[in-house]
Amino acid sequence: MTRMTDPDTPARSTSGSTSVPAVDPAAFRSVLGRFATGVTVVTTVSTEGKPVGVTASSFNTLSLDPPLILWSLALKAPSLSSYRSSGRFAVNILGIDQAAVALQFARPSNDKFRGIATMPGLGDVPLIADAIAHLECEVVRRDPGGDHELFIGRVLRAAAADRQPLIYVTGKFGQFEMFA
Ligand SMILES: Cc1cc2nc3c(=O)[nH]c(=O)nc-3n(C[C@H](O)[C@H](O)[C@H](O)COP(=O)(O)O)c2cc1C
Question: How many domains does the chain have?
Answer without folding.
Answer: 1
